[in-house]
Write a structure and sequence with these properties.
It is a single chain. A 3-stranded parallel β-sheet has the order 1-2-3. The chain contains 4 helices and 3 strands. The chain is globular. By secondary structure, the chain is of the alpha/beta class. Helix 2 runs parallel beside helix 4 and helix 3 packs across helix 4. The protein is 49% helix and 18% strand.
Length: 89
């Protein structure tokens, strides 16, 4: 399932009265764990990337793994960039 819009996921959650978990990821193992748990629970998920994660892993490597796993997922998922302050990157 491709990555979807946050509004789409939250509108459905509000309509059906459930929460959507948001988890910050820092590397491949985090992304894998979050997506595996979301699929086991058949639950949509928000994958968060904070600037500290980019400082740790680098933008390109983190963006690559954060995109690949969710695109192959069977559950709706959102990629969310937290606290970004560098518009040039």
């Amino acid at each position: 399932m491709p990555v979807v819009n946050l509004k789409e996921v939250l509108d459905k959650a509000i309509k059906n009265d459930y929460a959507v978990g948001a988890f910050n990821v820092h590397n491949l193992e985090f992304v894998h764990g979050v997506m595996r748990a979301a699929e086991e629970m058949s639950s949509p998920v928000i994958i968060g990337i904070a600037t500290v994660s980019i400082d740790y892993a680098g933008l390109e490597p983190l963006a690559s793994v954060t995109k690949i796993y969710p695109e192959k997922s069977k559950v709706p998922n959102v990629i969310h960039l937290y606290h970004w302050d560098d518009i040039k990157m």
